[in-house]
Amino acid sequence: MIISVASGKGGTGKTLVATSLALSLKEKMKAQLLDCDVEEPNAHLFLKPVITHSEPVYISVPEIDKEKCTYCGKCAEVCAYNAIAVVPNHVLTFLELCHGCGACSYLCPEKAITEKGREIGVIESGHSDGLNFAHGKLNIGEALAPPLIKKVKEHANHEGIIIIDVPPGTSCPVVEAVKDCDFCVLVTEPTPFGLNDLVLAVETVKELNIPCGVVLNRTGVGDRKTEEYCSEEKIPILLTIPLDTEIAHLYSNGITLVDGMPKWKSDFNRLFDKIGDIIHERTGRLER
Amino acid sequence: MKELVVLSGKGGTGKTSIVASLAALAQSKVLADCDVDAADLHLVLQPTMRENHEFWSGQVAVIDEEKCTQCGLCQDLCHFEAISDFRVDPVSCEGCGFCFHICPAEAIVMKESMSGHWYISDTKYGPLVHARLGIAQENSGKLVALVRQQARGIAESDQLDYIISDGPPGIGCPVISSLSGANLALLVTEPTQSGIHDMERVLDVCRHFGVPALVCINKHDINEDNTHKIEDYCISQGLKVGAKIPFDNVVTEAIVKGVPVVEHSQGRVTTEIESLWHHVNQALKE
Question: Domain residues of chain A, as ranges?
């Protein structure tokens, strides 16, 4: 089973929830945390994993053989991303724009283009006290997160439970991280910003046909509109975490909630049970 | 005319609250919300929409079932695994057109996709250019570029002194699109391990694109040790810390009320943001 932890708005507590959920579950079953926020991965700061494997990730970009090239312009014509321009006796490539679709090399009539790998980031995997761990780190200056996220997800170990830490937002990196999950936990805070972005996140997971529930973080300030929205839309609130200086302080020092305050473990186990019930109701599958 | 972009790497450090306050403090500016997939600035600036435009960008492949001979070539060649059972999954399709070009039966067409909307609005603080990327859509970078281009156009025609942009979290496509060519990046961080880690990465992105940076430590008093670490780090990197804003519930209260915090409270948060605006101006002059 794959559970993703997403939010819409950044900084609502995705990593707090993902790490504490994974740590609570690993005591009872095989568990894995995949940090798919490859632009700003943070789970490792809390889990301090032992990294046992590191591999670069490449996307395939064109390399042009000038001997064979006749400057016919076909490659530039088929490139949808303006990553190739052909001028008299010159082919210019703008590899940071390339999405690695492979059209240019396949369609070159002279077979003058080969696909070569361009590194966009790295995947590191290992373990943290019995919890399986992997994350991706996008290289500085790289724009394309989705291919790296896809690679992180290839490290999924389907024998156990997989928790995915999703990047903020609602666009392509989020879709890549969330798609094919069995359930999506949406972490939000009870403010107009939190609600606005929760609504967008709910629409995104609905579009992907993934069931979701909400974790309401930093309750006690803000307003009640997020709860009202959840009740109107029949989205279950699975857990509430109060605004609390001790929790904030643990977080600021890179300590997970369940390590710093072990009494929270039972709350995260209950959160998992509720998710199991929802999936069971929906699919008839028993996930405990 | 000077362009300031507010970034953070990590989400939720307070970018939008600070941008809204700078909007209230700055004279002669246009505002741009470059966080197009989770825009929040409008919730504080209470805009009245003047223009509403569709954002058409990118394409999606569609297979004509009548013409398709089910040869499977498109499925084999698609680098994004977007085609299965002779159907294109529009969410996975990157619109590259490879399948369209190679289909022997000419059964594939590329359809333009409407990926969102962008708006020009009036606010009490000046014009605002903002956008909304469609749900699960791509091309956020292009939409950000469009928002900036429109804001620049307004700044030029109205002879405004500043473009103030609220940037997205992260370091990828929409961040690069918000940042490249700006005069100054204001990096809003918080004294947490994640805040520090993410600020360092977004600072590297600023350097990569040659944009100078100024740092603001938000909620500095939630962990003074980490605040000192950030200050030491900034000194070692030759960066200025423009403000240290304390944690205060007035920030959330202002969000709930839908007003910039500097108009809601006259406390230390406001004093620090006023001082921040002074430092931003100095940095823009340098």
Answer: 2-57+146-283, 66-111
